[in-house]
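so i finally got all the pieces together for this one. its three components total, 640 residues if u count the protein bits. some of the lines might not be protein, just check the labels. i wanna see the whole assembly predicted at once instead of chain by chain like last time, that was a mess tbh
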Amino acid sequence: MDELIYTLKQQIIEALNLEDMKPEDIDENASLFGEGLGLDSIDALELIVMMEKNYGIKLKDPTQGKEIFKSVAVMADFIAKNRTK
Amino acid sequence: MIVCVSHNIISPLGTTSAENYAAVKSGKSALRKYDGLWGLPEPFVASLLDRKAYADEKYTIDERIVIDSISIALKNTDIDATSKKVLFIISTTKGNVFLLDKNENGFPKERVRLGMMARQITKHFHNPNEPVVVSNACISGVCAQIEAMRYLESGEYDYVIVCGVDVQSAFIVSGFQSFKALSPDECKPFDANRQGLNLGDAAATIIYTKKDKVNENEWVACRGAIRNDANHISGPSRVGEGSFRALRIALGDLEPEKIAFINAHGTATSYNDEMESIAIERAGLSGVPVNSLKGYYGHTMGAAGVLETILSMQAVDDHNILGTRGFDTIGVTHPLDISNQNRATEKRAFIKLLSGFGGCNAALLMAKGGLQ
Amino acid sequence: MIKHQVYISSNEVLVDGNPLTHNEKGSALLTELYRNHIGDYPKFFKMDTLSKLGFIASELLLNTEGNRDFEPREDRAVIFFNRNASLQADTHYQSTIQNPENFFPSPAAFVYTLPNIVTGEIAIRNKYFGETSFMVIDDYDEKIIMKNLENAFQDPITKTIIGGWVDCSDEEHFEARIFLMEK
């Protein structure tokens, strides 16, 4: 799981152009949106694409993202359970 | 005063303004479900022109329908399009963007440039002026009319021909799909069960001139404004900031009771319709009937502002407030006077309202016979 | 009346006609300008080249004006022209859908496939509720641009305009000539 969390942090940084951020700078339990990383609605959509591209997970309902993108740890957990690649 | 001299609409519902109005009045829509079109993996609902009917060796479909639309609009006028006193303004968001597809080889790639596309149009009509292309996302059609008003006010031109156009392609549809903005079914503007927008093809033309005096049947473009939400590049303001400010200027000192209806953007996305209801209330216009025409044509992007202005003028001429096709149960938090049925009106003015990506919003006040 | 102006090309930066020192060229130049003169707006890194260019140029222009209080205002418009609209962003987005075997349309790329997004970025940064507009002409033409901007003062509230030319054909080739104009 730790490895997945680290990889995921790298993928988030790359997909969302979080220049100047390193995986170490992201707290996997902190909120991705609002206070935490300060991501917005376009970032959420981009994360949906990233999950499909890298893990073969297709979110049918984009509002599901709200739950899944709570934190990197929650996201990693969801990916571990649902990944097809 | 800035006066509308002539207009035309080319859409899947007809090739004249009159045909389009008759179709909309009778509740027709060209929205259809497409599955597998252009190799897109997900189905979508759209209002599309018959591509074969507009196939042309010389012109792309966008250029072809612009030329057709302007030609028809010019037909019953004595305007000399070759004059340097005539300016062409094209309103489009994506123009010939389909040419970026590596499998498209029919036309020179340079035609993907909007200015180059517009030059095909002015060249066709032998007009000597550099055409101006307004590309302000979904509000382009109203912005182009505001530009026309300004050019005519400054006296540089006798006539300005405004044509809005967009034709759908894999580029645009996949982009809106990636935004999860498209409805799987026909769109339901302002409805509680709305699930997003539909896209559509169209070209629409309005020709304006300046006159000192108008008769009671002439349509006057009174005033308009463009305002930004300064909030987010893709999500509209939660407080309707830009739309409210644009509406306030368009309304000016006119009493809301004089307005037949606000023809809203009404794309049927959750955020847009909610935002418009807030802006309309903030502008003190809650009592004015509202409608959206997206259920007939989908969102025709660069054409929308022109197309919807033309249909609204015809509706007022016909003493009619067009029904909002797809609407059933109010689904916005601020009250709106909206109906899916045509309704009678004797009022002579309307406001066209639009909003778009980049946080932009535009409103335009049109009045038959001008403001007394 | 023009109060201040900024010129940025792939290898030259002028503020009110005076060269601004820099080491980089092309896309790296924009990043260098961001780091040396702005630095507090990480959204910069998410922008397409057109928005980066317009954003940097407007920041240099507004720093020259001074008094940056970021108070909301409606009396300032942002009106740009160019030749290539959003071509760089369009090409980038097309690359995400070109191959049916690797078809992952990117929403973050798609949103920039509208040239007016740059005007929105500047409005958001500075809390400008005023007019924002983008127009395309196939060749740079100062007469057309100036006439259009003068016309824009017909708006009842607009008193100043950040206006001019902001164009890029790809990530490495661009040109901005923008100015702050008073009624």
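Residues 76 and 168 of chain B are 30 Å apart (CA to CA).
DSSP finds nine helices and 15 strands in chain B.
anyway lmk what u think
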